[in-house]
């Protein structure tokens, strides 16, 4: 549901795919406050870095949504497990049975088929999506290590601060995008962030 909301936002409510990242950055302050106050989270540098990285990943994601239909962007989400499986094999020593490898291959083929337009033309969003999928997979491996070491509440709270910092830093070169913001975009972006 969040991908559909995000597509609506970048297509009809904002002029720049950077704007939702800035809005989400401010939403992260609420999430961090709850995690620190209610769940007694402890600050974590790993979480901060992961949150900052999520802002960068968000840029790639919203740029791809800006260029392409939500259904094609969502299809690329399904190949994240392929990248995670490869990284988990090399960094964690994990292996799968043949049925899982066949499943991964089918998912990748399906994603590629959806991403092609008529006459097998690759869309403009594909480069952004491939970088997004590769980096998001690395993000997941880092997230697993961090959560195992520090706990979910501390990583979540610290990542929320990192997301806030990432979104806030985007205000420096892109502060004019907020002047073109339609106010109805703010609750939509925050709702999508909550469900996403």
Describe the secondary-structure layout.
Elements: H1 2-13, H2 19-38, H3 45-67, H4 70-77, H5 80-92, H6 98-115, E1 116-117, E2 121-122, H7 126-150, H8 152-174, H9 185-195
Antiparallel strand pairs: 1-2
Helix pairs in contact: 1-9, 2-8, 2-9, 3-7, 3-8, 4-6, 5-7, 7-8
What does this structure look like?
The chain is mostly helical. The protein is built from nine helices and two strands. α3 packs antiparallel against α7 and α3 crosses α8 (152-174). The longest helix has 25 residues, at 126-150. It is flat. The chain starts with a helix and ends with a helix.
Short descriptors:
mainly alpha; single chain; 196 residues; 9 helices
Summarize the structure.
The chain has nine helices and two strands, in the order H-H-H-H-H-H-E-E-H-H-H.
The structure class reads: mainly alpha
Outline the low-pLDDT stretches.
none
Biggest beta sheet attributes: 2 strands, antiparallel
Q: Going across the major beta sheet, what is the strand order?
A: 1-2
**Percent in helix:** over 70%
Q: Roughly what is the average pLDDT, rounded to an integer?
A: 87
Sheet-strand content, in percent, reads under 5%
Helix-strand string:
HHHHHHEEHHH
What is the radius of gyration?
18 Å
Shape: flat
What's the number of helices?
9
Q: How many strand units?
A: 2
Distance between the first and last residues' Cα: 8 Å
């Amino acid at each position: 549901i969040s991908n559909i909301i995000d597509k609506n936002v970048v297509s009809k409510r904002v002029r720049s795919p950077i704007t939702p990242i800035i809005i989400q950055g401010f939403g992260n302050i609420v999430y961090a406050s709850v995690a620190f106050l209610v769940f007694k989270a402890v600050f974590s540098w790993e979480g901060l870095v992961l949150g900052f990285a999520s802002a960068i990943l968000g840029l790639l994601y919203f740029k791809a949504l800006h260029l392409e239909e939500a259904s094609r962007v969502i299809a690329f989400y399904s190949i994240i497990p392929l990248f995670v499986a490869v990284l988990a094999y090399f960094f964690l020593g994990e292996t799968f049975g043949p049925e899982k490898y066949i499943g991964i291959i089918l998912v990748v083929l399906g994603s590629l088929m959806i991403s092609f337009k008529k006459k097998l033309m690759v869309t403009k969003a594909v480069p952004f999506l491939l970088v997004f999928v590769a980096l998001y997979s690395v993000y997941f491996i880092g997230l697993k290590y961090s959560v195992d070491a520090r706990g979910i509440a501390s990583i979540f709270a610290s990542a929320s601060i990192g997301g806030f910092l990432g979104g806030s830093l985007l205000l420096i070169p892109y502060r004019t995008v907020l002047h073109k913001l339609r106010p109805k975009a703010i609750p939509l972006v925050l709702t999508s962030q909550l469900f996403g």
